[in-house]
Structure prediction request, 226 residues.
Amino acid sequence: MAAKSKKAALPETDSSLSERAYTALEELIVTLKLAPGQAVSEATLADQLGLGRTPIREALQRLARERLVKILPRRGVIVAEIDIKAQLRLLELRREVERLIARNAARRASEAERKQFATLARTFEASAKTGDALGFMRCDRGFNELCVAAARNEFAAGSMSLMSSLSRRFWFLHYRQAADLPLTATLHAAIAHAIARGDEEAAGAASDRLLDTIEQFTRATVSTDF
Prediction:
């Protein structure tokens, strides 16, 4: 009997390599493994992640647009500092945008997306029980991406891309001192459950409850930052 032929693995595209580089670098910055104010280089990051310099450069350009790094002519790349006052200004916009996205996602999500939201809700609830900060952060990133996709509003998506990583990094820096991980994860789960069942009003209300908690947390960090 002739052996069954195996399909050759398809090579990764430039866009998939760039996305992989972005995902890895974003997590390193958000979880403070690349610290605020730290200088980094394309060559060092390429070696660290096992990727070429082109996808690293493209990822850094995207991170610069999201204000996580600064690209300085003739000086290289610096991880952006964390600014409490900017974080409070960000929250003014974030509350309105996230409420809109949550409500739209509850109304417009496909059946497949609703199942994903239900799965994410259970993952958030598991994080609340275990206190797994990194697991929560990864789940939160996937949740934000799914919310944006399900909301079907490219303008809201553009706004979220400028806020979500900055917000997660700020939370990760301070959550041990001023935040309640189980509560934060439970509040995220409530939004995911509301979207999963298509309850627009509940999704918007749950989003507001989360932002109330985040604003209280942000203001509570003032005493630790100054």
Q: What stands out?
A: The beta strands are 39-40, 69-72, 76-79.
